[in-house]
Amino acid sequence: MTLFNKQGRTLDRRFFGGLELPPAALQTLGPASILLFVPIYDRLLVPALGHVTGKPSGLTLLQRMGTGMAVSMGAIITAALVEGHRLKTAREHGLVDDSGATVPQYGWVWLVPQYVMMGVADVLAVVGMQEFFYDQMPSELRSLGLALYFSVMGIGGFISSALISFIDHVTRSGGGDGWFADNLNRAHLDYFYWLLAGLSADELVLFLWLASSYAYNKSHKRIQH
């Protein structure tokens, strides 16, 4: 999501007539979305889904995680579409070589959907994963379950950094600007987002295949029924 900041630098960030948001301030849209979605999910979606599925929790833990992964993939696709259109607009207005220019017709609200969807994905997938590791581990190993949860988050961060470094090296090797050029109008974050969307789709298919054969332990069955 830090790459969203780079997109925000090129957009019109004014609101209420004259105040201008710093690009990093847009990061608050993610936590704000989480705060708004948690009560909506708990008070509205869970009872509605419970009525359909017959489960008090509405969705099982794995269903919740899978839904979050799908929403996350949707957020990346949205980011790719927005960035692709932003680059097209920058080229049409001759702003390719002006790294500090504000792209016309593009305000900070264009980034709201991807921030909001990432916040919703966190509520579903990240919180669901934490509950899964805690609930499905034997009671004497629950601390290990939480350790596994944090390990997943940490390993994901390392993989993300390594992927960005590798792609930046490869795309710059021919003497070009690369996908992550400082001048975002010459970069191709949209290509990177599409790559992430493809990886997310593969991961979701793998997750669904593995989850389809998972048997919940007895403690979870008591919670569900």
Task: Describe what is shown at a glance.
The protein has a single domain (2-224), classed as Up-down Bundle (Growth Hormone, Chain: A), CATH 1.20.1250.20.
Element pattern in H and E? HEEHHHHHH
As residue ranges, the low-confidence spans are 220-225
**Number of extended strands:** 2
Overall 3D shape:
globular
Helix content: 55-70%
Structure description:
It is a multi-pass membrane protein. It is found in: Membrane. One of its GO terms (cellular component) is membrane. The chain crosses the membrane at residues 21-41, 61-82, 146-167, 191-216. One of its GO terms (molecular function) is transmembrane transporter activity. With 225 residues, the chain is an all-alpha fold. The protein has a single domain, classed as Growth Hormone, Chain: A (Up-down Bundle). Helices cover 67% and strands 2% of the residues. The protein contains 7 helices and 2 strands, in the order αββαααααα. Strands 1-2 form a two-stranded antiparallel sheet. Helix 2 (29-53) packs across helix 4 (112-136), helix 3 packs antiparallel against helix 4 and helix 3 (61-92) runs antiparallel to helix 6. The longest helix has 32 residues, at 61-92. It is globular. The two termini are 38 Å apart. 25% of the residues are buried.
Main attributes of the structure:
disordered C terminus, 7 helices, mainly alpha, 225 residues, Growth Hormone, Chain: A, 67% helix
